[in-house]
């Protein structure tokens, strides 16, 4: 397993941690030194996947990678808990038992080594939007699907056609596995670029970093019905 190491000026530590969480970190270790720098460590997948998910970084930040024992990196699972998106929607870690609350829809997610459970604020907001706006029979595109939570939710809410794409092969694997866990069929789960997708969709969701959103804005508009 590869550990992503981000070294930043200590004044940037909070901003850097947020970037790691946004990229799908499950836990972030911060180590301060006496020189005014902070080292942040997490697991985001292999070097190429982590670099892609982090996107462009400030010149004063230094990105590196080291090998690590997998056992300590998995201890975060002991502290994982369900995420309540709304009063009637919960995202549950797949290894935890169901709450079986009446009137509450549960989506079970196994994030793998590089993706989130749905607890990051942007994921919760995106999930709430999908839950609110998807109607039966619609077509939905999930760009940067990660663990597949948004695509799966769209399918559960009745979308007839759901396409999930992500440049990371690990995301494709995680999404397919989670779709099977939740007993949903997605029309397509692939590593195709948004520039290669054809057709139009009633809803396009892209829970990714701002620079990538800006770069693909015209394509997202093209794909939105």
What does this structure look like?
The chain has 2 domains: 2-67, Alpha-Beta Plaits, CATH 3.30.70.120; 75-223, Rossmann fold (3-Layer(aba) Sandwich). The chain has 8 helices and 11 strands. With 225 residues, the chain is an alpha/beta fold. 36% of the residues are buried. The strands form 3 sheets. The chain has a 4-stranded antiparallel beta sheet, covered by helices on one side. The chain has a 4-stranded parallel beta sheet with strand order 10-9-8-11. Strands 5-6-7 form a 3-stranded mixed beta sheet, covered by helices on one side.
Fold blueprint:
Elements: E1 2-9, H1 13-22, E2 29-32, E3 37-42, H2 47-54, E4 62-67, H3 70-73, E5 83-86, E6 89-93, E7 105-109, H4 121-133, E8 139-143, H5 149-156, E9 161-165, H6 169-181, E10 188-190, E11 203-205, H7 210-215, H8 217-223
Helix pairs in contact: 4-5
What would a concise description of this structure say?
This protein has 225 residues and is an alpha/beta fold. It is built from eight helices and eleven strands.
Descriptive terms for the model:
globular; alpha/beta; four-stranded parallel beta sheet; Alpha-Beta Plaits; 8 helices; 2 domains; Rossmann fold
Shape: globular
For the sheet with most strands, the description reads:
4 strands, antiparallel
What's the helical proportion of residues? 25-40%
Structural class: alpha/beta
- What is the ordering of alpha helices and beta strands? EHEEHEHEEEHEHEHEEHH
Q: How would you name the CATH homologous superfamily of the largest domain?
A: Vaccinia Virus protein VP39
* CATH C-level of the largest domain: Alpha Beta
Quote the average pLDDT. Answer: 89
């Amino acid at each position: 397993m590869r550990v992503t190491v981000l070294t930043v000026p200590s004044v940037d530590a909070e901003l850097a941690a947020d970037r790691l969480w946004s990229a799908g970190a499950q836990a972030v270790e911060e180590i301060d030194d006496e020189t005014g720098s902070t080292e942040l460590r997490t697991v985001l997948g292999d070097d190429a996947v982590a670099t892609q998910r982090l996107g462009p970084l400030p010149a004063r930040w230094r990105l590196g990678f080291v090998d690590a024992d997998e056992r300590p990196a998995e201890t975060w699972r002991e502290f994982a808990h369900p995420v309540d998106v709304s009063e009637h929607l919960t995202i549950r870690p797949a290894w935890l038992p169901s709450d079986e609350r009446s009137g509450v829809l549960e989506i079970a997610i196994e994030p793998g080594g590089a993706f989130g459970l749905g607890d990051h604020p942007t994921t919760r907001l995106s999930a709430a939007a999908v839950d609110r706006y998807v109607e039966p029979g619609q077509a939905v595109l999930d760009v940067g699907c990660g663990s597949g939570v948004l695509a799966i939710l769209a399918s559960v809410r009745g979308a007839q056609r759901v396409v999930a794409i992500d440049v990371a092969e690990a995301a494709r694997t995680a999404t397919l596995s989670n779709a099977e866990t939740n007993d949903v069929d997605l029309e397509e789960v692939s590593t195709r670029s948004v520039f290669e997708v054809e057709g139009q969709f009633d809803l396009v969701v892209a829970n990714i970093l701002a620079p990538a959103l800006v770069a693909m804005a015209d394509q997202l508009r093209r794909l939105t019905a």
